[in-house]
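#onboarding

Welcome to the new folks! Below is a worked example of what a typical request in this channel looks like: someone posts a single protein sequence, and someone else replies with the predicted structure as tokens. Don't worry about understanding the tokens yet, we'll cover that in week two.

Example request:
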Amino acid sequence: MASLRNKEIDLNIGIGDMRIDGASVHLLQIPLTEPFKISLGTVYDFSGTLLELKSGNISGFGEGSTIREITGEVPPAVYETVIEILLQLKGNKYSGLEDFLDDVYKSVYASPTAKNAVDMALHDLLSRSYGIHVTKFLGGGQRSMATSLTIGLGSIEESLKSLEDLKRMKARLIKVKVGKDADLDIRRIKAISENLEGRQFFVDANQGYKLRDAVRVAKALGDSGGLFFEQPLEKHDIQNLRLLRRQSSVPIMLDESISEPFDVINAILTESADMVNVKLTKSGGIRKAFKTLVTAQSYGIDSMVGCMIESKLGIAASLALASSLSNVKYSDLDGFHSISKQPFDGGVEYQSGINTPVQGTGLACTPVRENW
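Example response:
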């Protein structure tokens, strides 16, 4: 299954000396090669909204794909919200990118995944029109970055099998999903750590634990040489995150707790985080995610850029962001590996645990329209 819905929209939006003539919005559903299990639930499909913004003979592409338990959005709502945002902006004139995106952010409450699709498409379109890559547009330099590859929830046996699969992919950094059963997770952490053969690893609980269990898992992680503990507690449980951080021998990284610059400031002032994970989908796009990372950088906080289950387009956008700031020390950009049919070619190439950006303009992605 691919396209579920699509819509063409006339826009006539002016941004500086560029005009956005129209847009094409598509809702896609593509099966994953295997179910993806985390503490928040199980994902079976890539369900994404793809947006094409058109300016003369140039097109820019954006994508919105999320997990409803993280952003509160479901795929059909993302699709309809993208259309609603564009209709609200139809016919408007803007001096530049900032003015346009201010209206995008104000157009509807929340809905960061839909806003991300619009933001990404505009960055792609503007960069293509200037003849440069999005990374250069952001002030960065294109660089290859190691990415973590993921072991989902499962038994010890299933986890070790997944680890062997990731070794065959020459993974350098392993992310282990935890958060359902602390006792089992502790045994899984120990078993995985004993079979890494020199690779580094960290765990991600996706808010799955209460404080008591998180303390136990943090100790096991420290004893096993883990790098950091990602989002161990519920995203608003700042007080207990602070208590956990004081008792943990490994750094605490916040993910779902971090959506905008204020969240970084709050985490720093409450002493609840050592590191932050910034994602385009949570942030509402490249522009706000960039500002969030800059805020972390100003406090001297190292960061990771992560992803949802996204196509090569979304991963290319996240890699461009990660390449633009020096405090991004890690990337977790493996979300395209499990999609059975890619809606885009190019953008990013994976080899031996490393993501490398494809050279070109914009995000350097080409639509595979037969998969739309």
